[in-house]
Amino acid sequence: MRLVGLLRSEKIKLAARYGSFLLVTAGIWIGYCAWRPPAPMLGLRHIEHLGHDSSQVSLTIDDAPHPFTTPLLLAALKRADVKATFFVVGDGMRLYPELARRIVRDGHRLANHSQYHHNLTRIPPSEHAHEIETCFAAIRRAGQQTRLFRPPGGGMNREVMQYLYDNDVTLAWWSNNVGDWSPQPAWEIVRRVEGPLRPGDILLLHDAVTSTPQAIPAIVKAVRRRNLDFVVMPEAQ
Questions:
Q1: pLDDT tens-digit series, residues 115-167
Q2: Most distant CA pair in the chain: distance in Å?
Q3: For the segment 7-49, what is each residue's pLDDT rounded down to a tens digit?
């Protein structure tokens, strides 16, 4: 009888711990969704992958244009016969308009990476319109149309998502952030692409890093070895 009582006591303790775990987990998810609701919950149009049954990948490049490295990237992409999507900073287009025009002339796509590359979670919501729409206007002046927007630093909160939703902007995410914004050799960038590479990937690279143009030829070879093709990032799925 004593053993039965001990077992029953242990079961009660285990059930109490399990119940506490469920309550804490539910509380965390409720708090997360209240602070930063997932995109599908809000109905925000978003793209982070081309689909696992796809035979294609998208190469996307943030922070362009840059006077030193954008020409190197364009030369490497031209030699490899690959079209990329450049997430441009509006102020960079103002400073280096010829580079922006060259991106377009070479057949690449422009998309929005904000006007001044401010993390939108660190500026007042009243400034979101200027930060986003001014860059869209610069892209239109360069001769292209897009509603793709990628927030600098991936900075997102409820106010940012609400603005994108209200203004018919597509959140352009990624499936592999290679991390080339930090100094690293070209071979390491290639390894970070090739290791986790999957059909439908949206690869995130960065301008203003000299090792990234050096990595482009090996990245292209790695993708094509998997019998995958490159496409610009679609406007919507």
A1: 999 999 999 999 999 999 999 999 999 999 999 999 999 999 989 999 999 99
A2: 87
A3: 566 666 666 676 676 776 776 666 655 555 555 556 899 999 9
Report whether 34 contacts 157 (CB < 8 A).
no
Q: Structure pTM?
A: 0.84
Question: What is the pLDDT at residue 30?
Answer: 64
Q: Which residues are CB-contacts of 150 (< 8 A; sequence separation ≥ 6)?
A: 60, 62, 87, 111, 112, 113, 171, 172, 173, 174
Could you tell me if residue 10 is left (phi over 0), alpha (psi between -120 and 50 degrees) or otherwise beta?
alpha
CA distance 155 to 99: 26
Structure tokens that stand for 53 in this block: 């049954």
Pairwise CA distance, residues 213 & 97, whole Å: 21
Per residue in 174-200, pLDDT tens?
Answer: 999 999 998 899 999 999 999 999 999
Return d(Cα 62, Cα 181) in angstroms, integer: 9
By annotation, the residues acting in catalysis are: 62, 206
Establish whether the linkage from the previous residue to 71 is cis, with ω within 30° of 0: no
